[in-house]
Amino acid sequence: MPLRANRLNLARRYLWGALVAALIPLVFIAALYDRYSADLVDNLVTNRVNANLEAAAVRMSNFMAVQVNKLESIVDLPDTTDFFLEEEGSAISPLLRDFLLLEVESPDVYAIELSRVSGETVATVPANRTREDPAGLNTLPLVQHGAVEILGPVLPGQGRPGWFLIRMPVFLNQQKIGVVSLRMRLSSLTELAAQLVEPDVYQPQIVVFERVRMTPVGTEAFSTKELARSRQFLPGWRIHLVEGGGDLEEPRERIRFVLLFAAVVSALVLVALFLKMSQRLSSYLVPLNEGAKAIADGNFNVPVSEDGPGELGTLARSYNRMREQLETLIASRVEVERRAALGGMAAGIAHEIRNPLATVVTTVHGLKRNENDPERRQMFDVISSEITRVDKTIGEFLNYAKPSPPVREPVLIRDAFRSIRTLLATSAHEKNIVIDLSGDSSLQIEIDPAHFSQILLNLALNGFDAMPDGGHLKLRAYRDGGSIHVTVSDDGSGMDDATRERVLRPFFTTRAKGSGLGLPVTKQLVETNGGEFFIESEAGHGTTVTLVFPRGSGGQQ
Amino acid sequence: MTTMCRAFLAFFCILLATLPVAGESLRIKAGCLFPLTGPGALYGRDSTVAIKLAQKHLESLEPFGYPQVDVIVEDTRSKSLRSLQIARRLIDEDRVDFLCGVVNSSVARAVSGLARDEEVFFIGTDHASPALTSEDLHPYYFRVNNGTRLSMRAGAKYIRETYGNRSEPVKIAFIGPDYEYGYQAWDDLRRFLQQQGTEFEIAGEYWPKVFETDFSPYIQSLLRTDADIVVNGQWGLDFVTFVKQAAQLGLFDRLQFMNFDAGGNYELLAELENDMPLGLVLSARHHVNWPPTERNRAFVEEFREEAGRYPSYAAQGAYAGILAMAEAVRNAGGTGDKDRIRESLEHLTLSLPEDPDGFRSKMDPVNHQILQVQAIGKTIFNNSFAPAKVMLGDWRIYYPPESWPTFKNGS
């Protein structure tokens, strides 16, 4: 049964419930986190980077718009129109040349080219930056963007950087008379995507018609896994976000593994912790449970350990106190009922036995007085003495059942001790018993003197009975704190534990002629006078009875 | 007797004609263009200090018939059109005999074109693109600072000496400023490597613009290459910014970094202080701690007394420019005959602070490029030239060839 109780006790059930409640969120969070980290790059790209990607595309659109605006300013100059109307081989006007020089001071523009409608470049500013056309010029991407054409890009190579052309025709009377081109630094455009670089995670590529790919520094890039793409900032020109080349998978898998491992370890630790807690809690609760069951079965002798933590310790202490109080309460209740029964019986005995006995004694006395036969007179004496003995026993019993209320007065203990010694001196001498009085001679207590004498006499006679072969009887009085102790001890036969437990029960006696009422009456007299009665005994070594009277109520010297 | 008297008179007259008349010293008017504000301004300011030192030096040589040079310094702000307009005014209004200076090669090409058209001598002192002494070359252009071509020639030799014995080709990535100077530097390095028979592969070419502020996309790209060496062609603030950002991104732990033309400039060492990594292979057109000659030490110290700081290489160029003008005019006997001045410039030799003992800087008569010794070093701790904490050391010295090297295509 204890095992079963152990298995199903409430603490365990609650703890298991709490464990499950703790594990469910743990598993839930671990699963969520795992899912999140598994899709980390995708989530990052989707949620955080798309806006940046579009912002970079807008920057590039704006950059191109500024360049187109610059180009328009050149195309709209009268000197530009004049230049194309001049004969072939004529020089650029100083004003136009200075204006163009000013424009190419921007690091974004390598050169400005003035070309015939046929495509022939007739002037380049600055002059030392004439274009070296790459092989495959005719296959370069060419797109129309509003009023301008964009040719390129030409990727860097042969020790020269990459470039692209923005071309705008010059019209006169709706007739195309020439073309002005800005030869642009390619990196000035691609660098606008550099902010998107997240080393080893992802990087941007500027992609033209899916066939030319460039890094943010304008060098050639290679096709790799695309994560996102911007809108077109020029026809056919986009920014792609691609994987950054760093091996993300390995650390990502490692992180996932570590996280899952940590989650499992946490769960195991949690289970172990809960098991331990459950065992500990059970070790306090199970004895309490068993103790409660013992009380229910009427056994008040099952104490529980009080060293439990917190409320459990308090509960155990309360339980023990409850058990003791319950035991005392029940014992006193039984005593009260027993006394009530004895009282009723005593009244009956007094009426139904003592009265007839008095009649018998009177009758026997009358018969004896008229009797001359000595033998019969002796028989009458025997009857009288036996009736006297019965009457005495009945008297003791009545004393026990309905003790007379004490009339307390200060009694000098020393005097009481001496009276007893005097009274028992002859008997002691006969039995070879030494009576020894000791203690504080000045002590006195508040007690009924007759009761006190009877108490001491009963205890001394009991001591005599315990020492058939002689011995020592010691009477001692001393003060201990607020109490006055009176002890009566002998070094006689003593009692075993079983005897000692029963010795205070009425009618229990170990002597053939004992009434079994001596000690119960004595104890009752002590308690009636406000004292406490303790008996200690060890078989073969003697017995000590200690009476404790309070100093205040019991008087003082 | 009469004959003798006539002969003596004739000799005396010739002597009078060839010697400057006492108290009537020859003066040259020069207009120098430098950036004095904005990016590269330090080069202009250092050049201006060096011009003063050169003028002082010429004063001490006046008794020996050296002409004095009056210099007008103008601020170009590194802008081509502004430079052109200033140069025109110097020619038309100030009537200068010489144009000089110019830091940026693009600006120099524009000014050189004007000098050609106006037939005014232009003495280049600080720009380095070989285009000016090859495809743009004209009779009125001369350059008195070492050009990129000789730096790259020295650099190619350095690479060969360091990596030439490997079984596999050395992988080189190049990053340089996106204009002629950068293009020419890379062209020349490749050509010299090929000429030497050094096996190499190009691991990448990158062209960030001048005065870029964020090189990180380029540095990331360099880190993704499998290059052994990254050759850097940047100068000035670009170099400083690049080095700082590259150090943060760990570029110097991965690749051997080299800059043969301008990276070892004192100005950059001073600017970077402790941020300058150790073990970089750098050079410059002049070093404050090389050659270890009395003349160089004196020049550096004199400059420091005048300016309160050590000189960048621009100072040496400007110093050489003023001395070159004086030497040429002295040899030509005046500023009037341009052909004689040109001839004098074409055969010019100068003893400059940057020349090691036993060597004189010498003009190539065909390409009008001065030929000087190039010293390449590695960055090491050296506190002797504060505020720089790291200087060049562990030098390797490369003497110039007899004549300026040209390539098959005429460049």
Features:
heterodimer; A: 557 residues; alpha+beta; Beta-Lactamase; Helix Hairpins; 4 domains; six-stranded antiparallel sheet; five-stranded mixed sheet; 14 helices; 17 strands; rod-shaped; disordered C terminus; B: 411 residues; alpha/beta; Rossmann fold; 2 domains; seven-stranded mixed sheet; 13 helices; 42% helix; globular; Peripla_BP_I (chain B)
Look up the CATH topology of the largest domain in chain A: Beta-Lactamase
- At the fourth CATH level, what is the homologous superfamily of the largest domain in chain A? PAS domain
Work out the count of structural domains of chain A. Answer: 4
Helix/strand structural class of chain A: alpha+beta
Secondary structure tally, helices of chain B: 13
Quaternary structure: heterodimer
The number of domains of chain B: 2
CATH architecture of the largest domain in chain A: 2-Layer Sandwich
Account of the protein in words:
The complex is a heterodimer of chains A (557) and B (411). Chain A has a six-stranded antiparallel β-sheet with strand order 2-1-6-5-4-3. Chain A has a five-stranded mixed β-sheet with strand order 12-14-15-17-16. Chain A has four domains: 2-38 and 249-296; 40-243, 2-Layer Sandwich (Beta-Lactamase), CATH 3.30.450; 311-399, Helix Hairpins, CATH 1.10.287; 405-554, Histidine kinase-like ATPase, C-terminal domain (Heat Shock Protein 90, 2-Layer Sandwich). Chain A has helices spanning 2-8, 10-38, 40-75, 78-85, 94-104, 186-190, 249-296, 311-369, 374-401, 413-430, 449-466, 497-502, 518-528, 551-554; strands at 109-115, 121-125, 142-145, 148-154, 163-172, 175-185, 202-208, 212-214, 226-229, 237-243, 409-412, 433-439, 444-447, 471-480, 483-490, 532-538, 542-550. In chain A, a hairpin with an 8-residue loop joins strand 4 and strand 5 (163-172). Chain A is an alpha+beta fold. Chain A contains 14 helices and 17 strands. By secondary structure, chain B is of the alpha/beta class. Chain B folds into two domains: 25-147 and 292-371, Response regulator (Rossmann fold, 3-Layer(aba) Sandwich); 149-286 and 374-398, Response regulator (Rossmann fold, 3-Layer(aba) Sandwich), CATH 3.40.50.2300. Helix content of chain B is 42%, strand content 18%. Chain B has 13 helices and 15 strands. Chain B has helices at residues 2-18, 41-61, 80-92, 105-118, 148-163, 180-196, 216-224, 236-248, 251-254, 266-272, 294-307, 313-332, 338-346; strands at residues 27-34, 68-75, 98-101, 121-124, 141-143, 170-175, 200-206, 229-232, 256-259, 281-283, 349-350, 361-363, 370-371, 374-381, 390-398. In chain B, the strands form three sheets. In chain B, strands 7-6-8-9-10-14-15 form a seven-stranded mixed β-sheet, with helices on both faces. In chain B, strand 1 (27-34), helix 2 and strand 2 (68-75) form a beta-alpha-beta unit. In chain B, helix 8 packs across helix 10 (266-272) and helix 12 crosses helix 13. Chain B is globular and about 60 Å long. Chain B starts with a helix and ends in a 13-residue tail after the last strand. The model of chain B is unreliable at 8-23 (pLDDT under 50). Chains A and B meet through helix 5 of A and helix 3, helix 4, helix 6, strand 7 and helix 7 of B. Chain A: It is found in: Membrane. Chain A: The chain crosses the membrane at residues 14-33, 257-275. Chain A: One of its GO terms (molecular function) is ATP binding. Chain A: One of its GO terms (cellular component) is membrane. Chain A: Residues 279-331 form the HAMP domain.
